[in-house]
Amino acid sequence: MAYVDLNPVRAGMCETLRESEHTSVRYRIESARSVISKALGRRSQDQALKPVAGLDVNTLAVLTESSYIDLVRWTGLQAHPDKRGKLSGAEEEPPEGLWS
Q1: Among 5, 9, 37, 59, who pairs with 25 as Cys (CB 3.0-4.6 Å)?
Q2: What are φ and ψ of residue 17, in 5° steps?
Q3: Would you call 48 helix, strand, or coil by DSSP?
Q4: How far is the C-alpha of 61 from the C-alpha of 39, rounded, in Å?
């Protein structure tokens, strides 16, 4: 899904994930911002994402919405220097817990 969420950036239609229309990552970012701005005190954006049908959920790593946004952002920073559509930002390490 991260590949699909990055398509508008890679195609040069936008420069940030928040500007990418009709993507789940934009919806997730806006949802997280809404929760934070309302100061509900809940961490609803950190609920685990739904597992893919047919997979044993006990063998899968838990991926929260905020960690998914971090993953898509980090993935968007990775691009060959000659390719267009790289997100702007400082070089950084992969999101914590991604490879564990």
Answers
A1: 5
A2: -65, -35
A3: strand
A4: 29
